[in-house]
Amino acid sequence: MRVDTQPAYVLHSRNYRDSSLILELWTPEYGRMAAVARGARSPGRRAAQVYLQAFAPLLVSWTGRSSLKTLTGREARGQRPPLKGERLFSGLYINELLVRLFPHEDPHPELYGRYEALLDYLRGSDDLEPALREFELQLLDEMGYGIQLAHDAERDELVDSEIFYCYIPELGMVRSCERYRQLPKIRGSSLLAMSAGVYDQETRQSAKLLLRQALSVQLGDKPLNSRNLFT
Amino acid sequence: MALHLLERDREGGLNLAKALDRAMEGVSHCARCRNFTEEELCGICLDERRDLTQICVVETPADVAAVEHSGSYRGQYFVLMGHLSPIDGIGPEDIGLDVLQQRVREEGIGEVILATNPTVEGEATAYYLTEMLNAEGISMSRIAHGVPLGGELEFVDGNTLAHAFSGRRPVA
């Protein structure tokens, strides 16, 4: 299979043999891809290595039939200032989520667009939390595990803003009760606010707990390493 | 190389094998700076003429060699043997940051110089260290990044040039 000039973001790059890199790429039409950039670390091309780091926007061409492709062409697609500090950690967190949750060659063009927008957001905006939560919601949606936030799954009605709810995987939001005392309790008003994309202080806290729970169901036993970066 | 040694230089091959054997058996990590050494502490940590109040944090033993070769630094080192990389499962304890924090607390360190690579993971490591050591009340610095000496601006990549501009210094 030969693919020409596909836009891509680098999710991760690791050294491979003496002078090559293995890149995890995120592309609109092919989803997550792994590819070898041969000779990317050879002495004459060190300057080009800067374009092959996490978050770098690229145009890539590749060939190969196995799950590890060979890059035949790569060029930078515009220049972006590097992510700094806490934002860098948030970016690493998002990249780890994508690597952990999506198999190779499973395309999600809409999520690709959201990823692109989120990176711009991480570079520019002051208020990160809503953008991160919206991305996580979209990500679950794309995996087929979207949460119907404003819907009481047991009673089949709109959630009541004064009542607390719990998230039950594969079911949805249900009224909190003794049986679910281990799970985070989310006030109905927060669920309504989240589904409207309005994040006040309480909603932020609730959204964080809810999405952490929902994502951990998908991540299984192995926790995310990038969470340890936030102190 | 294997064929050459077998055909023409068996003695050299045996010497090489012995040297490799000694290195594999004998070389471990320095208890203070984590650099490679055959002793409990490495030569740099034992050298009393060096500045004991400065620690330079680098990613690999090769980086120590490079800084030493430049002859511009006379303090101590701490070798991480890697960098933070969540996707590869490498966290703060895997690169000995708890050991570094303890050293800073116990040895009366005045300045920590962050000389991790200017890569995404190197920057993440530097930022994590900054946050971790912030409370210790020591001076912290990051090595400067920019245009290589003898280089021409025309051939420097945009990111590096942007970095060089944001880190410009007054001259008068």
Q: What do these coordinates show?
A:
The complex is a heterodimer of chains A (231) and B (172). With 231 residues, chain A is α+β, with helices and mostly antiparallel strands. Chain A is 35% helix and 26% strand. Chain A is built from six helices and ten strands. Chain A has helices spanning 46-49, 85-101, 109-124, 129-143, 188-196, 201-219; strands spanning 2-16, 20-27, 31-37, 57-63, 68-76, 151-152, 157-158, 164-168, 172-175, 186-187. In chain A, the strands form three sheets. In chain A, strands 1-2-3-5-4 form a five-stranded mixed beta barrel. Chain A has a three-stranded antiparallel sheet with strand order 9-8-10. A two-stranded antiparallel ribbon of chain A has the order 6-7. In chain A, a hairpin with a 3-residue loop joins strand 1 (2-16) and strand 2. In chain A, helix 3 (109-124) runs antiparallel to helix 4, helix 4 runs parallel beside helix 6 and helix 5 (188-196) crosses helix 6. The mean pLDDT of chain A is 91. Chain B is globular, with a radius of gyration of 20 Å. Chain B has a four-stranded parallel sheet with strand order 4-3-5-6. In chain B, strands 1-2 form a two-stranded antiparallel ribbon. Chain B has seven helices and six strands. Chain B is α/β, with parallel strands linked by helices. The mean pLDDT of chain B is 92. The chains are: A alpha+beta (231), B alpha/beta (172).
Shape of chain A: elongated
The value of Rg of chain A in angstroms is: 20 Å
- What is the 3D shape of chain B? globular
Number of strands of chain A: 10
Largest sheet entry of chain B:
4 strands, parallel
**Share in helix of chain B:** 40-55%
| Most residues in contact, chain pair and counts | A-B, 30 and 23 residues
The pLDDT mean of chain A sits at 91
Helix content of chain A: 25-40%
Task: Give the N-terminus to C-terminus distance of chain B in angstroms.
Answer: 57 Å
Give the oligomer, counting copies of the same chain as homo and different chains as hetero: heterodimer
Question: Which sequence of strands runs across the widest sheet of chain A?
Answer: 1-2-3-5-4
Determine the strand fraction of chain A and express it as a percent band.
25-35%
Compressed to H and E, one letter per element, the order of chain B equals HHEEHEHEHEHEH
User: Span from first to last CA of chain A?
Assistant: 44 Å
Strand order within the widest beta sheet of chain B: 4-3-5-6
The helix/strand class of chain B is alpha/beta
Query: H/E element string of chain A?
Result: EEEHEEHHHEEEEEHH
Radius of gyration of CA atoms of chain B, rounded to a whole number: 20 Å
